[in-house]
Amino acid sequence: MRSGLLPALLLAASLSLHSTLSVAEDDVRVWDFRVTLDGKDIGYHRFASSPQGGMEQVDIEAEFKVKVLFVTAYRYAHRNQEQWQDGCLLRIESETDDNGSQFTVRGERVDGSYQIKHNADLSEHALGCLRSFSYWDPGILDAQRLLNAQTGLIEEVEFEFLGTESFALGAGSVEANRYRLSTPDKDITLWYEQDGGRWLGLETLAKGDRVLRYEPDQLPQRAG
User: Fold this and answer.
1) 197: left (phi > 0), else alpha (psi -120 to 50), else beta?
2) By three-state DSSP, how is residue 163 classified?
3) End-to-end CA distance of the chain
């Protein structure tokens, strides 16, 4: 199994869908995805965003387990807490267990630049505004570089609009804009609802050209 299976760290009641798809309430927005590999459930990836003192706090949690002949061949666990303001990352703290390999990332914006510590390595980047792989925010589509929450690296990225298509959601479907996110080592397909820009899911290839996909179990209520 490819190390770093997650691309980052690693995405409605108004639809009137009669399904198990649930909707986050109040001020907390939740994206809860069932993660599949070649159509088989391997775990989950959950994002919860809430306002906090003029900022936005995002708590992220993921766990994967891949079995081969009833034996666990790969494990992945990721915990990440981020603080945002005006579309810019202010602070990040993450811990990752990638099949036994441990990673920690600590980052903070200080005086217009970012100080990022990955395990024992400290780096500083003169960037006024930086984003992580924050798929939940459609503003990511304008980014040219993103912080990898697992490796602490800032990656050059490119987004390409691929068109509009129907996206299955619960017992129904919605019209979605499809994008390709190109990173230095992989391509990721992202879907956003055409009306309102909600993130709906993603798909990419893991080692051996196996299809890794995020299927939504819970999404925030559509804005408006």
Assistant:
1) left
2) strand
3) 42
Output the six-digit token pair for 1. Answer: 């199994």
CA angle 91, 97, 103 (to 5 degrees): 50
Q: Which residues pair with 213 in a beta bridge?
A: 36, 203
What is the CATH topology of the domain spanning 13-219?
A: outer membrane lipoprotein receptor (LolB), chain A (2.50.20)
Determine how many CB atoms are found less than 10 A away from the CB of residue 112.
9
Cβ burial of 149 (10 Å; 0-12, 13-18, 19+) is: buried
pTM score of the predicted model: 0.85
pLDDT 10s digits, 83-136: 999 999 999 999 999 999 999 999 999 988 999 999 989 999 988 899 999 999
Residue 9 per-residue DSSP state: -
Task: Return the bridge partners of 176, or none.
Answer: 165, 193
Long-range contacts of 178-187 (CB under 8 A, 24+ apart): 179/141, 181/7, 181/157, 182/157, 182/158, 183/7, 183/146, 183/155, 183/156, 183/157, 184/155, 184/156, 186/7
